# Entry
Amino acid sequence: MRVYNVTADAETFTCNAYLALGDRTVLVDAGAMDGVVEAVRERTDDLDAVVLTHQHGDHVERLDAVLDAFDADLAAYADHPRRTRELADGDVVDIGDETFEAVHTPGHADDHLAFVGDATIFSGDVVVHDDGAFDDGSFGRTDMPGQSRERLIESLREILDRLPDGVENMYAGHGGEFHGDVREVIEQALERAERREPKYPDE
# Structure
């Protein structure tokens, strides 16, 4: 499966929006970059679906533009006026050439999903490899209203419980992509989250 971060060249704050090419061409999150439609078109003429990890602004600001440009389906956990498929914990989703399990992972966002496959995880903001706060395993921020460190910790544990052996590709909502021992990265993130220390000094 070929995966491209189509917001990699963004000059404004956005999530990583990943275009997965394969049997089913899917964009995981739409991001907040003005040129995301053009970036997708550089790689493909057709987009089957957009799948959302969650609906924070940096992940969905350009969603309408993408849906309008490609007439794609929209799959999400929480309600959205343009949602064509409601996703629940345990649902199966085809992305690129892989089949993924949707894992409900609240804490950073109530509607957060991670997508776990046999070789790949799209982790959204629940866990990332590096984000400016930590390298080699960090976790989504939980200092904003409606967020919960305790729920995020449980979500990290849930991912580890349901992560197959051999997952070596992690595409997170922020920071760089990671290829290697994904379980080790998530375990490091969990250990840091369990310390209950502020992620950022001003938190």
About this structure: The chain is about 20% helix and 25% strand. Residues 149-162 form the longest helix (14 residues). Residues 56 and 143 are 14 Å apart (CA to CA).
